[in-house]
Amino acid sequence: MESFVYDYPVKNYFGNGATWRALDAELPNMGERVMLAYGGGSIKRSGLYDKLVSKLKAAGKTVVGFGGIMSNPTYEKVQEGARLAREEGIDFIIAAGGGSVFDCCKVVSAQANLDVDIDSLEHGQGGAPTEFIPMACIVTVFGTGAEQNDGAVITNEETHVKAPFLGALPKWAALDPELTLTVPEEQLMSGAFDTLSHCMETYFGTPRVNDVSDDLNVAVQRNVIGNMRCLLDDPADMDVRSEFEYDSAMAENGVLKIGKVTDFQCHMIQHQYGAYTHTNHGMGLAVIHPHLYRHLAPAAPEQFARWARDVWDVEAGETDLETANRGIDALAAFIKEMGLPTTFAELGGDASDQTLSSVADSTVLTKGCAKKLTSDELFEILTECR
Ligand code: NZQ
Ligand code: ZN
């Protein structure tokens, strides 16, 4: 196991009604001018926006709305939010939505306090922001676990790069399963698969030996898989939704990563594919994972075989690689069973040679937990995803 320091300052309010319990407790700590940030309008349609505004106003807050944050948020939107936050002298940001709203706000929170452009600070000079407008997350769609950390992914539409940023760490998060009842089923499945992907990308980190973090990770993976099947039977089941919401937090609150080094290669590939095609994050991961793993398993057959046995209950083959491939087959069959896309065509994303080769050339190739890919091999993987 690697040495570690684990410090976890995000306060989680969990359960139906958590939003209102969180606000009752936290309103006195928010200052007077609150930015209420949201996405394309689902929170207006559900009535949540009006309820939040009433609650904030009743507590004497001035509410400044910042809406229209799109899925896979853009750098331009971040700059719009930062300008608004500065002009309005915002004391606190409440981000209500999913990963896209949270990520945008984490970087808005940092950019609003900076004189320099945060992209050049972080990616040009290798620096990091140190001052933030405090923020909190109200989760209306789960899966990314973005409310649990200070990482954000932002798309620069001019350069076609979806890059990681370091932003604000939320002070608190409300995980309120009732708020997710209006999420369309395909987005629920996308989010659930994103959680499974976070677990797998962590599990296949190093060291490859079995340890506490891997055992916990297997438990979360099995829970997500079981609950995705339950969700197909009964999309309104609140127990299932509650467990998903907790799974999604568990995958990104750092617990499963303790003692491991991860590299999130599938995410790097999906982010770049998303930067060129604007396609859905969790669904893109569903397309890429099995193909990527067929290329990685031969470099770490024991680890993939253990995962195949422990997560997918496959029978051992004659070799570790055979067992590993049975696990990957089980993953691919599960993705199909859940109605998730299995090809870029089903996902609705462009898969021309030109696009795939641009994605292969611009993806960050990580050290690779099993092995480091070349851009030629990545291009091959991407063509297999067609
Ligand atoms: O925009 P609105 O109208 O709100 O609709 C959203 C959006 O269309 C809808 N939605 C949200 N809550 C709803 C609802 N619809 C009905 N009822 C509700 N209660 O759901 C759609 C998807 O929302 P979005 O936030 O885009 O999805 P998700 O949570 O999957 O976030 C995706 C983004 O997060 C990044 C991804 O790259 C992507 O940009 N990620 C962030 C991570 C992090 N910071 O830790 C980790 C992830 O790996 C991921 O990369
Ligand atoms: Zn993800």
Write the topology of this structure:
Elements lengths: L10 E4 L3 H9 L6 E5 L4 H4 L2 H11 L3 E5 L8 H13 L4 E6 L1 H13 L6 H7 L10 E5 L11 E6 L4 E6 L5 E4 L9 H19 L8 H22 L4 H15 L12 H13 L3 H16 L4 H12 L7 H18 L6 H4 L5 H10 L12 H10 L2
Helix pairs in contact: 4-5, 7-8, 7-9, 7-11, 8-9, 8-12, 10-11, 10-15, 11-13, 11-16, 12-13, 15-16
Please describe the structure with a list of short key phrases separated by commas or semicolons.
386 residues, alpha/beta, six-stranded parallel beta sheet, two-stranded antiparallel ribbon, 51% helix, 11% strand, globular, binds 5,6-dihydroxy-NADP, binds zinc ion
Looking at how many chains there are and whether they match, the oligomeric state comes to single chain
Unreliable parts: none
How far the N terminus sits from the C terminus, by CA atoms, comes to 38 Å
Cα Rg: 21 Å
Order of helices and strands: EHEHHEHEHHEEEEHHHHHHHHHH
Helix coverage percent: 40-55%
Count of DSSP H/I helices: 16
Strand order of the largest sheet: 1-8-5-4-2-3
The main sheet comes to:
6 strands, parallel
Structural class: alpha/beta
Provide structural commentary.
There is one protein chain. The chain is of the alpha/beta class and 386 residues long. The protein contains 16 helices and eight strands. The strands form two sheets. It has a six-stranded parallel sheet with strand order 1-8-5-4-2-3, sandwiched between helices. A two-stranded antiparallel ribbon has the order 6-7. Helix 7 packs parallel to helix 9, helix 11 packs antiparallel against helix 13 and helix 12 packs across helix 13. The chain is globular, with a radius of gyration of 21 Å. The relative contact order is 0.11. The mean pLDDT is 96. Bound molecules: 5,6-dihydroxy-NADP (NZQ) and zinc ion (ZN). Zinc ion binds next to helix 7. The site of 5,6-dihydroxy-NADP has 36 residues, from helix 2, helix 5, strand 6, helix 7 and helix 10.
